[in-house]
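lol forgot to send this yesterday, sorry. struct tokens for the thing we talked abt
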């Protein structure tokens, strides 16, 4: 019984590691911005909202009201966020990924 459990745990942990690696390989260099957004941001920004500060959602109107207009502005927010938001430095989210997420936000949340 114990052996079976250990084997199951081993298989499970392998699949957890293998699945994202497979997804990366399949898409080559292309970044899946939605997946990255879902991974890093969606917990606090579901559907482009903001569960902590509802006035600071990711819709164009909210962004504009807070002086955020371009992809660069969104990346700047990730690198240097306001109160309550996780900081995402270039180690957590490399520039290419950060830019892809920013583009995704501008294209998705109007
Ligand atoms: C732990 C919760 C949390 C996570 C995770 C999070 N945010 Fe935020 N976000 C916030 C909060 C809180 C604010 C408001 C901060 C402030 O007052 O400036 C905010 C503000 C923003 C704003 C400015 C919105 C506006 O209208 O002014 C942007 C853009 C943004 N987040 C992008 C992101 C992106 C992109 C990610 C993922 C890489 C992310 N956030 C992850 C909590 C979070």
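and heres what i got for the seq, position by position
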């Amino acid at each position: 019984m114990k052996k079976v459990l250990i084997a199951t745990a081993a298989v499970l942990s392998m699949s957890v590691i293998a699945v994202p690696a497979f997804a990366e390989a399949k898409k080559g260099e292309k970044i899946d911005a939605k997946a990255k957004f879902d991974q890093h941001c969606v917990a606090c920004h579901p559907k482009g909202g903001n569960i902590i500060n509802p006035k600071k959602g990711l819709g164009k109107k909210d962004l504009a009201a807070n002086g955020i207009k371009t992809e660069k502005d969104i990346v700047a927010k990730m690198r240097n966020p306001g109160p309550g938001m996780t900081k995402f430095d270039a180690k957590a989210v490399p520039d290419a990924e950060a830019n892809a997420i920013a583009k995704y936000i501008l294209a998705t949340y109007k």
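Residues 22-27 have pLDDT under 50 and may be disordered. anyway ping me if u want another try
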